[in-house]
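retry 2 of 3: previous attempt timed out while embedding zinc ion. Reduced batch size to 1 and resubmitted. Inputs unchanged:
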Amino acid sequence: MNSDALRYRNDLEQAKALSEEREVKRVTEWLEKQEAEGSTGLRRQLLATSVRLSRKMAPDVYKLSDECVERLSMDTPLELYVFNSAQFNAMCFKPEEGRVFVMFSSSLLEGFNAKELQFVMGHEFGHHIYNHHEIPIGYLVKGRQRPDPKLALRLFAWSRNAEISADRAGAYCANDQYSVASALFKLSSGLTGDLVKFDLEEFLAQVSDMEVIDSEPNREGSQADWFSTHPFSPLRVKALQLFFASNLMDPAGTSVEEMDVGVQRLMSLMEPSYLDARSDAAIAMRNLLFAGGLVVADASSGISESEIEVFERFFEKGDVSDKLNVKRIREELPQRIERAREQATDIQCMQVMRDICVIAMAEGHVTVDEKNVLNGIADGLGISRTFISQTIAQDCEPD
Ligand SMILES: [Zn+2]
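retry 2 succeeded.
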């Protein structure tokens, strides 16, 4: 099978649209220039801090990676590295000198069985074959200049969808649902021993229970779990479950279209679709996002004229008609929080809270003053402050 067939459609479409954005093009061109001047030196840096695995040294690891390479029809030469770390981790970089570099932590290589390793390998290869590194998300959202908030939100949404594609490539290589789930469990929990036994059926039942709880109104629930960004997030597990039930993995399975409708429904939590919707809830969410984002931006060092322009462009569709007045918007923030709480569901409130965090993070780092504003908004919405800490701890770069 052509590995393109595995790719999640929204990842492909959003990557295409993003690569046409002026700001994305500008940063990509700048990076290409840096690379042409030889100033990234990634390979040298890797060699200094990691051990390159030769075929002679690690025949079993290469046997597993060869199988993945073949299954995904990859044709770029590969170099595998190991670095000393107790944390399970793997990463893949943009190719240099026509070679793909994939790195594994020592604990991961030793703690994962063959199929679990193939899931991790295939996941990293997936990032490579789908050119996820072509969109320099880290440079875009952590650069010196505050990016357009809408672009930041789109980049974060895309990066979640890119993980879905990479997971599918990994699952296709492992070709075993239990091993894929246990790999995600190991990555999240750090556990590999016999003390805790992973149970796939039980976990999938828990995910289904969460769906039931979330569809019932006014229930103290597990909604925040849906926004989890760790590997064992219910969204990723559910999306993989749909993948294994599709005809990509099971000849009698559902069509790819049907699977993608299901995945889209899941991932809609990650899409800033309320930015364009016309419902009362969407308008209330937008107004809160705008005020929250602006007040957070103003919190530490004051918002500059050029940053205000960015915000005005963001909301050009008429939600804000008069010239921006930060003081007035700060005064209105509590009303906007209340309005969102009335109009939007709990999970929608979390979504907009997450997006305000993304705008705060897009500036590079979140200061104490900014975090205080974020906590205040969370309190007003009845969202746990832990949700803020979890959201701003996440990394947007594909790994
Ligand atoms: Zn990844």
